[in-house]
Amino acid sequence: MKRPRVWIRALVLGCGALLLGEYIALTVLAPRYVLRAIRQLAGGAVSVGRVRLSLPFTSTLSHLRLRTNTEERAFAIQRATVVPRRFSIPTKTLWIDAVTIDQPVIRATRTREGAWRWPSVSPPGGALPAPAGWQLSIDSLHIVDGSLIFVDEQPAKPFHGMIDHLSLSAGPITAPLRDLPISFAVRGELAGDAGHAAPFYCSGWIAPVAGDLQGSCQLEPLPMAALESYLRGPRRIRVYGTTLQITSQWSAAGNVLQAKVQLELGHLTGEDFSVSGRTIFDVKQFGRNREFSLRGEINLIGPMEQPQAWHAEFVAGDDQVQSMTNRLLDRGVEIVQLPLWGHRLNLSLVPATEATMTEIEATSKQIKEALEVLAMPAEEPSQAPVELPSVPAIDDAVLVPPPSAPSPPTAPSSPAPSPDTSAGQLPDGA
Question: Structure pTM?
């Protein structure tokens, strides 16, 4: 019996060494890179409970939080799961199938003096860090059941708002960023005062390098009483049972944004709008003792990153709103100022035609139909305050041996981007 040739042994050993090296890289280097990226984005002030490895390649980072968390501002992640695919030394590229972030919580506050208290993380749009000379490619990023808590102490009655049950699916994402479109789909629930809440959805794609964007969003009818803290000012605006519904289309080319935002006030009754105890218009006269709604559209155009430079127009969406707009125009009121992210947006009042009104209603209906795939049953908002995970400050992550239980399932890949605003569907578990 002949002995195997030396070169065969060397080939087998070489292949085995390569496979072992790739396994070590994917199970050790990939999660450590993700941990490094999170710490870099957060300025190095992140503590991690532990890192768990699950065969074959899945890594899970648990109980991430900022060491600088306070009652006013905080950031925490219950669990982050990384599913790497492969890496290439010649091209210096690491491919990751999916990154899933479970139950992230962000808390922000505006103090009575007007100062903003945000968690000390990098601002949106900051570059995802990558090792020197290496490229990172993430097929899909998923955020599951996230919460964004906002407390505004400036009003006489502090406002407590929340974006709850937030789920997001996006991809592909690269670092450094390349001129490729990233598809996204978002859904969640917007809640305000007294637990009033309504679901919202968004879908589309964005090309950050080129400054291109296309998407659509919808907010289902939200009781305006959710904003009661802001309506209790000197004018004491009463909205009673009035609801606000919003649909919108957003597009950008070369960082120049164009948007159409359709507004609809519903559930109107005899005294739904009053200022300082006086009715501002006769709802019964408009409605003729029947339920009706008021529609309008805001058109925006301007640099995507400079909201203070946007030009805005308001167009009536029905005869009732057109009648009120004409009264303002007859009195010489052509511009109304609205607060927008610390600036004042000049909103020009523009007369509408019958064709324009019909188009506004048709556009709103089209957006609702396109986003039906993201619709979810409205859930009762939780009255109890959301608690941030209590995690001890651990300087270095602890590697835990792979458990005997099966590894968590791989998150599905995000859909390929397309000009259609209904870019993708969230995973069923989101």
Answer: 0.76
